[in-house]
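WARN no homologs supplied; continuing
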Amino acid sequence: MQRTLRGMLCLTFACAATLGLAACGGDDDDGGTSTGGAAATDDGAGKTGGTISTAYTSFPDYLDPALSYTQEGWQSMWTVYTPLLTYKHEEGAEGATVVPGLAEAMPEISEDGKTYKLKLRSGLKYSDGKAVKASDFEHTIKRVLNLESGGSSFYQVIEGAEKYLKDGKARADISGIVTDDATGDITINLTEADGRFPYILAMNFAGIVPSDTPFENQTKNPPVGVGPYKFENVRINRGYDLVKVADFNVPDQAVGKADTLRVSIIKNRRRQTQDTIQNKIDYMNDPPAPDQLRDVRAEYTDKRYKEFVTNSTYYYFLNNDIAPFNKPEARQAVNIAVDKRSLARLFGGLLEPGCNFLPPGMKGYEKIDPCPWGDPTAAPDIAKAKQLVQDSGTAGQTVTVFGNDEPESKSLAEYLSDVLNDIGYKARPRIIEGSVYFTTIGNQKTKAHAGFANWFQDFPHPGNFMFLVDGDSIQATNNQNFGNVNNSEVNQILDEANKNADIDEVADDYARADRLIVEGAHVVPYGHRKLTVFYSDRVDFENCTSWHPVYNLDFTQLCLK
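OK structure emitted
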């Protein structure tokens, strides 16, 4: 989901933060105060009404469904833009089930797996009252492709998508999408079978928008959608509101409980924690600071605080295309030198050291044991790493390590920079503002050597992780394959495995691709995350805190006591 999760932990300890003290530092915006809103009423399944305040550490990368690719963005996108297919609003395995969204039913798929037929539900309206048309789906996909979205590679399997991209004419047709506004019929023809395609149709990129939505980033004025909420009061880099759509009524889709979800950006994680404790904000998206975490666990677990295991991977990317990491020995040296125990400690016990790129909860995961670069729970062999740097002929080269200005990313970039200096490079960190970090390192013109990266599933399929290291996904801008990994054997395995709709049949293939990526030292995976939720005392913890396997906290289920 991508929906990569950007802001996670506070790793700096500049100000005292015992739980009884007021928060120190932080932004001066007024978004951290809970306003209460209208009186809540009980609908029998958790109360409805009122205003719930939420704190993020960084503003989402975009508030445009064609472009948004961070967890912060996707958590909101799911409530505003419903695709043809979507997910159940349930916890656990049920929540990972793809179900009809704006389509009447699941698609009819041809025997060769290349043709999908769907029908739009009748009577659908956008939040502004405008009727939804079948042709809006094609326009939605055109925007993803035309704007060079980070998700565009998913939709290039549609017949005519490559030509559409090559011709560069925004309003040209995509030959593989045929729609009929009179009947609501939508036919999608693929160039080849793709077992991931139902999941791809359920991604937020395919959240339908009107056909007159411009071919440009709409973050300042997000387009209307079909969903239980709509965007209002967007304050760039400061926050926005999700306001309940009164007449939203799509069968089997949640309508939302709170009247308004007020999202505010509060950079200081300590302030977020303190404000949550003091009921000034109702939900913080990121974990409490590590030195506060123990006390929060002790005081609030099962009352206001929970931890959840996620399908995620934290890793360093190494640019396989440019020196020094175009040399395998140089990449091997970094994998050997990184101390995964130290990195786990930085996460306050919310990271499990690992060797694999695929996370343990994902189909296709087979633990790589022994790890070719050393036991993830043991000390690294720095002497061996230094020798490999010498053997590679890259000693003394300059390396820029990228990170963003959120505390955990900054600290992780500084750590890798120190490691690289220790083993023979001249390294320095380069810290970029969080909301533009991933678009910066995803632009080939940046020529980023190495840096912080992480991934939380867009959808529960191993192909959603492996596309990050698939040579076929490399693009000029909004590139998610930050290290330009292009292993021909891996590419071939993924080309075949991705066609099969039965994940169980190809799980071994994904495991083999995972092993090849690790053995080739193409990236430096170091662990898999737990996430937390921490609420104010105003939130109904027992009935209204649903944890979704794809979108994490389900905003539609949040409610007040």
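Residues 1-44 have pLDDT under 50 and may be disordered.
OK
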